[in-house]
Each structure stands twice: as structure tokens, then as C-alpha cells.
Amino acid sequence: MTIALSVNGRAVSTTADAATPLLDVLRNHLDLRGTRYGCGLEQCGSCMVLIDGKPDYACSREIGSVAGRAVTTVEGLAAGDKPHPLQIAFLEEQAGQCGYCLSGILISAKALLDRNPTPSRAEIAAALDGNLCRCGAHPRIIRAVEKAAAMILQGAAS
Amino acid sequence: MSEPLPLSIQNNRRLEKWLRFDADRTLRLAVGKVEIGQGVLIALTQIAAEELDIDVACVNILSGDTADAPDEGSTSSSQSIEVSGRSVRLVSAELRQRVLGRLAQRLNCSPADLSVEDGSFLLDAQPTGHDYWSFVSDADFAADIEGSAMPKPASAYKVVGQPVPRKDLIAKVSGAAFIHDIVRPDMLHARALRQPSRNAELVSFDEAAVRRAAKGDFKVIRLANFVAFVGTDETVVQRAAVAAPAHAKWEGARVLTQAQQEAEWFVTQPSDDRHVGDPIPASVSGTVVEAFYSRPYVAHAAMAPSCGLAEFRDGHLSVWSHTQGVYPLRNSVADILGLKRENVTIRHAHGAGCYGHNGADDAALDAAIIAQQMPGHCIRVQWRREEEFGFEPVSTAHKTRIAVELDAAGKPVDWTTEVWAGPHVQRPIFGGVMLAHEALPNQPPPARAGDPPEANGGGGTRNGTPFYDVAQKRIIHHLGLTTPVRTSSLRGLGALPNVFAMECFVDELAERAGMDPVAYRLSILTDPRARHLIENVAARCDWANRGPVGTGKGLGLAWSRYKNKAAYACVAVELEVDQDIRLRRVWCAADAGLVINPDGAMNQLEGGIIHAASMTLKEQVMFDDQGIASVDWASYPIMTFSEVPEIATEIVHAPDLPTLGMGECTFGPTAAAIGNAVAHALGVRVRDMPLTRERIAAVLARG
Fold first, then answer.
1. Do domains B7-152 and B184-252+300-391 have the same CATH topology?
2. Tens of pLDDT, residues A26-65
3. Chain A CB contacts of B611 below 8 Å
4. What are the strands, taking DSSP E only, across B332-482?
5. For residues B15 and B102, what is the distance between their CA atoms, to the nearest angstrom?
6. Is A83 exposed, middle or buried (0-12, 13-18, 19+ CB in 10 A)?
7. Are B389 and B371 a contacting pair, CB within 8 Å?
8. End-to-end CA distance of chain A
9. What whole-number distance in Å separates Cα of residue A31 and Cα of residue A26?
């Protein structure tokens, strides 16, 4: 059985059995290792991806349930060689320490900015509550999301 | 007499072990300290670039590699800049001096007439046509490092002291970046079935049931009580590992009790008792007051469960690990597996922030054991979340008693800090054991209780001696000889529970003396750097208008000098207590002498504040009869984005003073500032961490 889906705008297919976690398919079958294993329990957000534009946990989603859907991972944020404003802002703010949580956080932040281009600090924090960060980079991460929001608005205006 | 050479140089006297100019106009800097999220690599890069006057972009750093990088022990205890940074500075200055000395001879000029710009050599500010890459020769590397070259004065720094961005973060916001993401030829995935405890014997194992649950092919490796599942499909071996515990029957596993979960348990246990400091006075003339404080077992709780890769080819074992110390790990792995140390190479690869001795080394040993059984493959072991929480070494529960004799004015004249705790460090080199070794046929003797010596800052005694002006002071340390679960180092060791106790108690002493807590501190503290920080934070948090006690709103302040010899930090916390504690704002000031990268330093200071706040408010490792029961993020919650307060941090710059390790300096002060703010908000003192709703309610109920 082959399961077909779109990942980062590219049509892909996999022969993995339908119960295989999306996370394993991304990492081991499609060689996209930016989506990370953290708990396998939908508790930490390290594995967050967008499925049809909505943030979801790749660790527990079975690949069979994603057939025909569009998945976006951290590797799909950049437009070609051009990093996403979130990636630029995170680097400018040095918004991370170990960085293990960042790909999931970037995904959650993208989902937030897609639906709310001008979030408040509290709205950003609430949108990231499904993502844990152990190093304590939270203030920088929130600043980086604010900065990216401003960059996106400015880009849209110019 | 000049200062002795840093240990890193004493142990690595060959220049080529540290520095090498490569043909692509880059410098390879090799160091023994490793990146654990703290940003150390960019700081070390800046130091080398500064002394050699080359662009930071031209420096490639190799860190943690037993084949190609110097042995600098472990990356721990906020020592990386103090020790490795000083070493890189001396080594780089020496290479520069040797090269320019030889060039001066060639050009028949004085070395003082030569300068370096972006790696090119100038004579009286005019190009010489030479640079490091064209001119450096083997002759410059011939002699052992003397450490006698004079580094640049701080006033000449151009790169050191600047917020240069880290290079490693680029990959970490784009895709594969960690040990977990490494793919090697002939790679197989593996998971272990964990022995519940030392001496537990696997008496039956229903392999067929596990195979049914795994729905795929895998190999079972078994050596005594070590069992692993190995296969090409990670999903299958993961399913096997998840299913396996229910189909394994063990005998002889240790049984834990609820009482063992609390620090109080150590008071009843046999201990190695030590007395550090002044003798106990023969007679007491003033009032003696005392209080007990505690912190339970806490977990490192890294975001990534540990991972290790190993391959055994042609008699040589290569291991990839996110360990804090590649050389100590190499020695342990070689000794356990019966290999010669020269036949084992450990290479560091980035993992999630570890904050101490977590499962990293154990996962590497798991992989190495399997690799030895399956030569020719790369074995990738990925621990599961419940495995990391359930089997990593945790930080020991820790109880502190403070007893102080006061003079007529309520100032301390005699101070005793008494500590009951298990070992704060049980790395194998300090008598600890590696996890899987206990399951192997060559099981080691039980772990030996030990703690770092006072010269290294102590373990349970860390920051136990007050930095205040007290005539007589001592620590009485009861080191528990056995612990119910494995314990080892976590950020700051005993500093957090001891500073929590001490700085909360100072607030209690101030109240007893009828003084404001800040004024009281300043009245018993002469150290000017500490006083400056306290005054700085008190001004910024508007301490003067702190308001009355017991309104539900609290403002608390605390400070310490980490290890009483590293960086200083002062923290104030504003919070509200309703049913739960909500942190509102935090102010911090720190003095770490010369700061190499102020942005990295700020990141560490703030990270320490949030980590400590999480620990103080929320964290406790829970036991059930079988072992650690808090094995996921629901049973071991940590601070979330919405709970993080606004933090305003200031670094007090002292560029002419030596760099002081600062990765752990905000830890204790944050815990104590929260304790003091809660007491201010409620009018009662909660002395046992974590300061949860239940513990606060219990204290309020007692009145």
C-alpha cells in the first residue's frame, strides 16, 4: 500500500504501514530530520508540523490519517534560499539555547502569524503553550515572534 | 610567582592539539569543552580570533573529540570560560608570538613593529605580503606550550566583549542539527529494555508477545540483564521497546517507599559526616535561631531523550554522544567493554540542553554494547521519554538547616549550615556507575558515595558558607551513603537549595531585627561587588515602595556569588499569590568580570532564572514502589510560555577583572527571591520546595 501526501509543497508517497507515526515517516522515510522526537505523547511540541495549515503533533499522527493532506515542516518554512521571516528573526534575536525545541516552536509561531498577524505578547505566549522550552529562552522567543510579525507586516506593506 | 597554567594546558602541551591553519584560509580551533546550548563555542571562537587577529568567520571549531581535540575533562560547573577560555587565550597568544617572532627575524625588524589585521601581517602598518596561511610552519609548533606569551590587554579588544551571533543556531532553525539526526552507513535503530534496578534479574521474557506487538522484524540482543531490540525500522523497534516491559518478569528489584521521595528521609539514614570551617563554639552568649529548608529530587528533564551512536569496525569502536565529557566517557566505555582506550574514539555531537549529568553517557554505552555484538553496523540508540525521566540520574533531594547566633542588634555572629543530601555528583570518575553496566555480566560494585571537594566548590556544601560578614561559620555535611535512585550533577549542585535556605533565612533574620531585608543585607556585607548588585536591583525594582506584608502581592530579593568564587548575581521577583503563584516581573543584575559575549551571557542569566523558577514552583521527581513514577511532562510539569514573567537583566561590566563562570549564578538567587516574595505576599514562610498550591495551603493551615 502506498500513501500519498504533500510535504513542503512536494508530492510524496510512502510504503510505510498506515499506523506508522508521521514523525517517523518524515525523519526516516523522507529524510526530513528537522521535526524532532521529544515525548511521543503530544506534551512537548518538539514534533509540531502544519497539517493543512493547522499545527499538529507528528509524533502521534498515524501516516494513514494524513493521506492526501498537505504537511509543512521546518524545512518547508524557507522560500527557496530565502529564509522565512521567523527564521531570520529567531537568528537576529539569538532566540534559543540548545535549539531542540525551535523547529516545533517555529511551526506553532507560523500557524499563529498566519491567523493573527498582530498578536499581543500574551497571545504569542498562549499560542506557544503547547511547546516546551527547557533552556529558558522564552523571552527571546516571544521577542523574535513579535519581530517576525513586524517584518511580515512591513513586507506586505512595501 | 606567576599563576599556574590552566589545567587544560597542563594536560595538553602540544600546540597542534589546539590550533591549525588550514589551506582554505581558515583556522581550526580544537577544544575539549562542548556545546550544551550555553553558547560556549562562539565565546571560545571569539577569544582565539581576538588574540590572533583573524576574522571570527575564519574560525572552524572542533569540540569534544578524543581523536582530534584536547582533553579538558567535563563541560560543567561554569568552568568553560574560566579554564578553557583562559587556555585558548594563552595558546593563541603564544602561537601569534612565535609566528611574529620568526617573521621579525626574517624581516630584520622588531616584533613590536609588526601587527596583524584579518590574518595578514603588517610592518609599520604596511603590508608585508605574508599572512598566517603563507608563513606559519612546523617550526612554530615544535615546542611545547609555555603559556608565557602576554595576551592582549582588555582595552585592545575588538571581538571579545561583542555580541557575536552563534554559528550553530542556523542549522537548528532550519532542519537536521543534532546527534538524533545523524545518519551513518549500515545504520540500525535500537532500543533497550531497562533493568528496573541494580540486582534485578530477568527471569522470564515473552519474546513472541513483543514480536506480535512490534509488527515487524528485529533482532534481540541479550547480555545477562541487558536486553536490546535492533532493526532497520525505527518504528518497529520502538513498538518492541514500548511493549517489552509488560512481557518481562524481573526478580530482586528494589522497592521504593513514598518516604524516600522527600529530603527528610536522608536525616534518618547512615551518612558520611564532615565538618568544614570553624569549630563549634564552646559556649553561646546570644540568641540562637534556626530553620529547616528543603528541595526534593529534581530531574534534568532535557527536551530530547538521550541518543547515542556507536560502530565497531576492525576492532575499533567509534561512538557519537552528547556527553559533557568525551574523554571520561571513552575511559568508561573502554573499561566496561574490555577494550583498550586507544581503540575507542568518542566524538561529541549536539544534543538538547542537559544542565548536568543526564542520560547522555548511558545512551552512548547502550549503543556501544550493542555495536560490539554487531560489528560492521552503526547502532543508533534513541531513549524514550519515559526512559529519560525514569532512568537518568536525578539531582538529589537536599535538606538544609541554618542555625545562627545573633548579637544584641540581631546580626549574626556565628553561623552553622547543616546539610543532609545524597551525592550531588556521581559521574563514573567520582564513584558512580553507568546504567547498563549494572545489567551486564561484569556488573560493577555499587556506586560509592562521594561529592566534589571544597576546592572545586563542594557538592552538597556548595554555597553553604555565607558570604556575609560573620565572625565564625561552618558547614556540617551529612552525605547520604545510599540513595533510592541514581543521583548526579544538575546545574549548581547544592547551590540552589543552600542559597534558597540562606537567603530566605536572611529575610527572616531581618524581620526579627525589625529591619528592611535589603538594608539588613547591606549592614552585614562589605564585598563591594555584591553591594553594588543589590543596590542596582533594589533601585530598579522600586524596592523602597515595596508595600506591606500579606496583601497577596510580593516582592522578594536575593543574591549570591556562585561557589563563593564565581559570578555574582542578584535577583528580585514580583509575584502574586492567589491559589497559585504567578510570577509578574523579574529584575536581575550580574557581575561576571570580563564577559566574552554579552548576548550569550544574558541568555544564560535569563535561562537560569526561568529554569530555577520552574524548579522552585513546580518540579519534583515522584516515586512509586517500582521507581521513578514521574515519567512524562504531565507528571513532571515545567514552566510554560504563559507562566514566564518579564525579565530585565543587566550585566555590570568589569572588563579588567578575570572572567567568572556565570551559567549557574542566577539559579540560587532566583529560588530564594521567589521564596522571599511569597513570604512577603502571604505573611508566612514556605520553606519546602516546590512552592505548590498544596504546600502553601498546608503552611497557611498551620498558621
1. yes
2. 999 999 999 999 999 999 999 999 999 999 999 999 999 9
3. 134-136
4. 344-348, 378-382, 398-406, 412-421, 472-480
5. 16
6. middle
7. no
8. 48
9. 6
Q: Which residues of A touch B588 (CB under 8 A)?
A: none
* Side-chain-facing half-sphere of B521: CA atoms under 13 Å: 25
State the fold for domain B184-252+300-391.
Aldehyde Oxidoreductase; domain 4 (3.30.365)
Q: Is A59 on the interface with B (CB under 8 A)?
A: no
Under the phi-then-psi rule, with left for phi > 0, alpha for psi from -120 to 50, and beta for the rest, what region is B124?
A: left
- State the cell numbers at B173: 532553525
Right CATH number for B7-152 from 1.50.10.10, 3.30.365.10, 3.40.50.620, 3.40.50.300?
3.30.365.10
Using a CB–CB cutoff of 8 Å, tell me whether A106 touches chain B. Answer: yes
Task: Say how far apart CA B280 and CA B416 lie, in whole Å.
Answer: 9
A52 φ, ψ (degrees, to nearest 5): 50, 40
B 527-546 residues inside an 8 A Cβ radius of A = none
* Cell triple for B369: 554494547
Q: What pLDDT was estimated at residue B2?
A: 65
Cell of B352: 538538547
pLDDT (0 to 100) of residue B76: 87
Q: What domains sit in chain A, N to C, each tagged with a CATH number? A: 3-76 (3.10.20.30), 85-157 (1.10.150.120)
User: Is the per-residue pLDDT at B25 higher than 50?
Assistant: yes
> Does the beta-carbon distance from A96 to B39 stay under 8 Å?
no
Q: CB neighbours (10 Å) of residue B514?
A: 8
DSSP B633-652: TTTS----GGGPPEEEEEE-
pLDDT of B579 above 90: no
Whether residue B215 and residue A17 make contact (CB cut-off 8 A), yes or no, is: yes
Q: What average pLDDT does range B502-521 have in this prediction?
A: 98
**Residue A131 in contact with partner chain B when CB distance is under 8 A:** yes
Mean pLDDT of chain B: 96
The pLDDT score that the predictor gives to residue B1 is: 42
Q: How far is B256 from chain A (nearest CA, A)?
A: 25
Order across the sheet with A48-51: list the strands: A10-14, A3-7, A70-72, A48-51, A54-57
Q: Is B615 on the interface with A (CB under 8 A)?
A: no
Q: Mean pLDDT throughout A111-130?
A: 98
- Is the domain B398-702 a CATH 3.30.365.10 member? yes
- Tens digit of each residue's pLDDT (9 = 90 or more) over B204-263: 999 999 999 999 999 999 999 999 999 999 999 999 999 999 999 999 999 999 999 999
Which of A97, A129, A141 shows the shortest C-beta gap to B642?
A: A129
Domain extents for chain B? 7-152, 184-252+300-391, 398-702
Are residues B37 and A138, on separate chains, in Cβ contact within 8 Å? no
Which residue from A102, A131, A138 is facing B610, i.e. has the nearest CB?
A138
Backbone angles phi, psi at B114, to 5 degrees: -95, 150
Nearest to A91 among B173, B301, B607 (CB): B173
Closest partner residue to B166 (CB to CB) among A21, A37, A94 is: A94
Pairing of strands A54-57, A48-51: antiparallel
* CB-CB contact of A126 with A142 (8 Å): no
- Confidence bin at B79 (pLDDT 50/70/90): confident
B contact test, residue of A41, A63, A98 with most B CBs within 10 A: A98
Q: Is B382 on the interface with A (CB under 8 A)?
A: yes
Secondary structure (3-state) at A143? helix
Q: How far is B38 from chain A (nearest CA, A)?
A: 6
All residues of chain B having their beta carbon less than 8 Å from the beta carbon of residue A134 are 301-303, 352-353, 355, 611, 638
Selecting from B38, B178, B234 the residue whose C-beta is nearest the C-beta of A24 gives: B234
Option in A32, A74, A100 nearest B178 (CB): A100
